User: Which sequence fits this backbone?
């Protein structure tokens, strides 16, 4: 069932309250940060329309017209979510997603958007420091370099697992892998196009932060993952972000994962377990 509007919504639009509410709900379903659907078309709603359009229009205009292309795209995921937070997530296969997504849905998910055009990053979340990781989970191995090396800490090894999270298999800290599986199930429902394009560029990898000789990457404890879209990696430290990553970041954030886009050196392909989520894991890692 698709949603229709009577008048245009957005920049210089008619902005009837009922129509604005509908568009705000659709934008929210696509993970756009619109806040509460209040029927008022302010800068935040127009900004969200703009960001949404950046995925498929060369020149986003911030306007949703009745029967127009933007409304069609907004309607692409207006089917009912198959999972709720209360039940264990079902692993969705790429084939199932393919059935749910209309064939016309091929957008340029790897199109780049500027980091400084994004809304607030990682609201309410904190990254975990090396000091805290070392204190709580111990040292994954004795020495680190830029290369991935095996974890040698026997206690930590007990909590490392390899399992499918839906679109791909990962090796990482058990509770982080479980959390990723929940996130992927939600992405499959809310962002099926991104789900189909998702690949992993690795989770567990005991090494230093890229370019550093002292900072240990959180990949070393298996609490971080790097993602690919259509096989392409987001460029490191260039302040530009693959559009598809902006669509799924709010889902990662909602599950307590911190997005590397906010690191001093932008790392948009990287998501990691935040401080508050790690604290929830700790009682099970004793
Ligand atoms: Zn990473």
Assistant:
């Amino acid at each position: 069932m698709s949603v229709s509007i009577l008048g245009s919504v957005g920049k210089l639009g008619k902005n009837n309250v009922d129509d604005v509410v509908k568009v705000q709900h659709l934008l929210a379903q696509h993970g756009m940060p619109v806040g509460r659907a209040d029927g008022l078309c302010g800068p935040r709603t127009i900004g969200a329309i703009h960001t949404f359009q950046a995925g498929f229009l060369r020149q986003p205009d911030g306007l949703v017209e009745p029967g127009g292309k933007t409304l069609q795209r907004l309607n692409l995921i207006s089917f009912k979510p198959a999972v709720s937070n209360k039940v264990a997530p079902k692993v969705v296969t790429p084939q199932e997603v393919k059935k749910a997504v209309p064939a016309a849905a091929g957008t340029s998910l790897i199109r780049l958007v500027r980091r400084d055009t994004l809304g607030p990053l990682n609201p309410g979340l904190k990254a975990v420091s090396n000091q805290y990781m070392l204190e709580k989970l111990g040292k994954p191995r004795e020495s680190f370099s830029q290369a991935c090396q095996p974890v040698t800490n026997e206690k930590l090894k007990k909590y490392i697992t390899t399992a499918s999270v839906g679109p791909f298999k990962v090796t990482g800290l058990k509770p982080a892998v479980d959390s990723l599986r929940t996130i992927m199930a939600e992405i499959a429902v809310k962002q099926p196009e991104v789900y189909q394009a998702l690949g992993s560029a690795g989770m567990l990898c005991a090494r230093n932060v890229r370019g550093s000789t002292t900072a240990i990457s959180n990949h070393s404890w298996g609490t971080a993952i790097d993602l690919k879209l259509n096989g392409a990696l987001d460029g490191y430290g260039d302040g530009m972000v693959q559009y598809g990553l902006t669509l799924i970041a709010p889902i990662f954030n909602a599950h307590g994962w911190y997005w590397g886009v906010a690191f001093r050196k932008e790392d948009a392909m990287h998501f990691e377990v935040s401080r508050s989520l790690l604290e929830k894991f700790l009682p099970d890692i004793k």
About this structure: Residues 78-89, 100-106 have pLDDT under 50 and may be disordered. Residues 219, 224, 226, 270 surround zinc ion (CB under 6 Å). Strands lie at 9-10, 63-64, 112-114, 160-164, 169-173, 198-200, 224-229, 240-242, 257-259, 270-273. Residues 174-190 form the longest helix (17 residues).
